[in-house]
Amino acid sequence: MRISVNPDRCQGHAMCHMMAPDLIVLSDEDGHATAAVDEVPEGQQHLAQLAAEGCPEQAIILS
Amino acid sequence: MNSLISPGVFGRQEGRLVSARCEVQFDHHSAEFAQAPHEVLARVREKCPVAWTQAHGGYWVITGYDEIGDALRDNETFSSHHDPEGPKQGVLLPPLPTQAGILEMDPPEHHSVRKHLAPYFSPSAVDAMREELLQLTTECIDDFIETGEAELIEQLASPVPAKLTVRLLGLPDSEWSVLADVFHKGAYLPSTEENMAEIHGMLLRVHGQLHELVMDRRANPRDDVITSVANLRLDGELLPVEKAAGVLLNLAAGGIDTTTSLIAHTFVHLDRFPEHREFLLEDPSRLRVACEEFLRVYPPVLGFARTVTAGCEFAGQELAKDDRVWVSFGAGNRDEKVFEDPDDIRLDRLPNRHASFGLGRHRCLGSNLARVIWHVVVGEVLRRLPDYRVDRGVAQRYPDCGDINGWVSVPVTFTPGPRAGGSR
Fold it and tell me: What is the pLDDT of residues B324-366, one digit of tens each?
């Protein structure tokens, strides 16, 4: 499973980071999210799923 | 046909038949709404996620989660701009007398100003304020912990955000009570001539101080949020001092009574649901996830307005240019299409993509700060007065929750405890 964040959708709600702190980094500039990894490590898929489902802007892309 | 839906109007748009306008009886400033906002919003949403009401000169009410997102992400069609002389009346309905900082700006101006402010409210910037917040909270609790009784709004939930905000803005520490009063009293006092004069006087005072601070920071720049706003240039021009002071005032308005309200709802909720209090006392690390459920269920701002910039069809309704729209985050948060058993309050609800901080480019700039303040204040109350009981006969909601959904007072009693910060 791969994870990325659509920068045009993300508004910095920071919910994804709360759910998956190892998969997401928040910018010091505006608090917006980017993926910390490309491939989601084994055992963290459910966290990636929660982060994607919990994003108010639906900005997280899993593939 | 249901009594809430009138026959409405049929019209043609680009050759297509547009459905009947769905009309409801609704007023977000009414006493009926203040008593049971979620029941009223649920009834409106069940009829139609985008509906028309005749109140306040007529406006659209958007209550469906998806429709809320579509409207809030389309800043071109749904404008936040406020021109006191024109049809664009900003985000409060009825409108504020003056334009309110970035809250009532559209792109590109909004994005430029916001970009300058964002670093002061990023998660890392906010984390750095935790110690200071804990100290402010400890001082407030120390003032009443030995007595066994407190009024949690006046003595804690109102002063902590206000004291932090005066420091953030660079105002003298002593000004916190003016700032707390102007936004807290301004939110709930009935708009009598006497009250309005008092609130207006306080607003002028704070605005005047911010005006002077902007001038000062232009001459003596520091590493603070005022300097950033004071020296902000749009198209090469410095912001007019008036406007810069307005942006700063709006930061205070956005953060003070909203955070107070969320904390107040939490205290009342944990008194009504002892099992929830127990759940958080058992493991305080549960507060982080629980905060989002309190936000979902008790949004301090139940909705914001927009103005339609061009006639369009939206969710099957025909919107006209200059129509006013009230977009209800609070209603979206209870939409069963998105939230399972939306009226069940589950402090471990995950995922929880509530819209209480808004959606799209206007997402609450201070959301991370609000969470940290809530976390510290609620965490300290649970730690130091875990058995508090609310005097429910005296606790008082805002009589009108159309702008801010909060509590006037939440008096409590508890087993007295020792001060933490040394003797007076």
Answer: 999 999 999 999 999 999 999 999 999 999 999 999 999 999 9
Q: Give the pLDDT confidence of B289-311 residue by residue, as tens digits.
A: 999 999 999 999 999 999 999 99
Evaluate whether B270 touches B277 at the Cβ level (below 8 Å).
yes
A59 Cα to chain B: minimum distance (Å): 11
Q: Which residues pair with A24 in a beta bridge?
A: A35
Query: Kindly report the CA angle at B28 between B156 and B342, in degrees rounded to 5?
Result: 75
Of A15, A27, A51, the CB nearest to B122: A27
> CA-CA distance, B284 to B277, in Å (whole number)?
10
Residue A62 touches chain B, beta carbons under 8 Å: no
Report chain A residues whose CB lies below 8 A from the CB of B288. Answer: 18
Residue B230 makes CB contacts below 8 A (sequence gap 6+) with B213, B214, B215, B217, B218, B221, B238, B239, B244
Q: Do B123 and A53 touch (CB under 8 A)?
A: no
Residue B122 to residue A50, Cβ atoms within 8 A? no
Q: What are phi and psi for residue B89, nearest 5 degrees?
A: -115, 15
Across the interface, whether the CB atoms of B363 and A13 are under 8 A apart is answered yes
Q: Which residue in B123, B292, B359 is closest to A57 by CB distance? A: B359
Instruction: Decide if A56 and B368 are in contact by the 8 Å CB cutoff.
Output: no
Over residues B123-148, the pLDDT tens digits come to 999 999 999 999 999 999 999 999 99
Instruction: Give the Cα-Cα-Cα angle B93, B96, B102 (nearest 5 degrees).
Output: 100
Which value does ipTM take for this structure? Answer: 0.96
* Average pLDDT score over residue span B184-194: 84
Q: Could you say which of B351, B357, B363 has the minimum Cβ distance to residue A54?
A: B351
Closest CA to B280 of B388, B368, B353, B369: B388
Instruction: Tell me what pLDDT residue B19 has.
Output: 62
Shortest Cα distance from A20 to chain B (angstroms)?
A: 11
Q: Which domains does chain B have, with CATH numbers?
A: 1-106+302-355 (1.10.630.10), 109-295+360-397 (1.10.630.10)
